[in-house]
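Illustration: Erythronate-4-phosphate dehydrogenase.
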Amino acid sequence: MKIVADENIPLADVFFGGLGEVVSVPGRTLNAAQVADADVLLVRSVTRVNRELLENSKVRFVASATSGIDHVDTDWLKEKGIGFAHAPGCNADSVVEYVLSVINVLSEQLGFSLKEQVVGIIGKGQVGGRLLRRLEALGVRCLVHDPFAPAEKTEQQAELDDLLAKSDIISLHTPLTKHGDHPTFHLLNAHCIGLIRPGSILINSSRGPVVDNLVLLDRLRQGDMTAVLDVWEQEPDINPELLDHVAIGTPHIAGYSLEAKIRGTGMIYQAMCRYFGFPTRVRINNVMPIPVLRSMTFSSDVQAEEAITTALRAVYDVRRDDNRLRLALRQRKEAVPVVFDRLRKTYPERREFQSLKVRLRNATPDVKHQLEGQGFRVVSE
Ligand SMILES: NC(=O)C1=CN([C@@H]2O[C@H](COP(=O)(O)OP(=O)(O)OC[C@H]3O[C@@H](n4cnc5c(N)ncnc54)[C@H](O)[C@@H]3O)[C@@H](O)[C@H]2O)C=CC1
Ligand SMILES: O=C(O)C(=O)[C@H](O)COP(=O)(O)O
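Result:
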């Protein structure tokens, strides 16, 4: 069996090597000739999977090691009887921790207390739902807008216009869709961006085109709101002027924790085994590398907020990713798309909060409870 795989799928050989010959290719430029004699195609978000790519191939199964599937023409695959799988939720914790790091950094830079903010979550799926739980564990008031998955508590549920007008922090977690009852392409258009209150923060880690980037840039030029972008229109050729106007800008890496990427590979491996009726021999937990930072100890007088900030920043600080992007673009040695894709390809190892064991010496049960609410593994000593 010939398996053509995006070269940025980590551990592709480890998972798929026992199932066939794995051929690695750059996903962004993958073309029909490269998949013509493949049986299986494994992609990430940068490969457009459609009739043009596959109509003359013998591919029987396609999998994307991602949560989003806007790059895949699933209707066409279905029509042709080609199997398809993706990895829902593989990187949800990674994106949540990106957003928590953003909020943590901005609360210090802009001088606000998170407990006094209203956070509006648009899209309550794997990412939005988990973000909601972590924020609630911190005692933060949240509003939720999702026409397909209404909030469990009525006081959280909000129409889009209301949420935009009432939230101090707005975080987008919808897929990119162009059809259906509630399409999200330019969901945040001129009307919606106009509803965001002066002083509010908009975070987009969903897909670039969910926000009309030119309208956003116009609003940011007025200097009365803050935006954070991980995803951009026209990736990888992002607008440098927009980067200059956002407080934090990163190259679509919110979901790039090592756990998330390996989970993504493992999930599509399991799906392929199910599809072809193969036994699964490789286990995700058995191939997950041990983190460099394994534990951290706090003494008895530590307060919950201080412990969470310290642990969170030790595991992930979004400013490192923002710096890498700005520095690389400022050097002007490579074109914008080359920089954007290089930073993604060479992304340094980043771990999730659950990789850190937090040791607490005589700390109160509240500190333990709050750290656990943010996903850290806590041991009381
Ligand atoms: N920046 C990054 O690295 C990553 C980005 N993503 C993006 O985030 C998106 C969300 O990820 P998940 O939570 O894992 O997906 P999901 O499919 O679990 O959740 C998406 C939610 O959005 C809701 N939704 C759909 N249309 C909506 C609309 N018009 N208004 C409000 N809500 C709407 C759905 O009902 C669903 O509950 C993905 O589709 C992907 O595009 C996902 C992972 C990593
Ligand atoms: O899972 C998704 O959806 C994402 O946005 C991925 O994190 C994107 O990563 P790549 O597939 O572009 O490497």
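Reading the tokens back as a structure: The chain has 16 helices and 14 strands.
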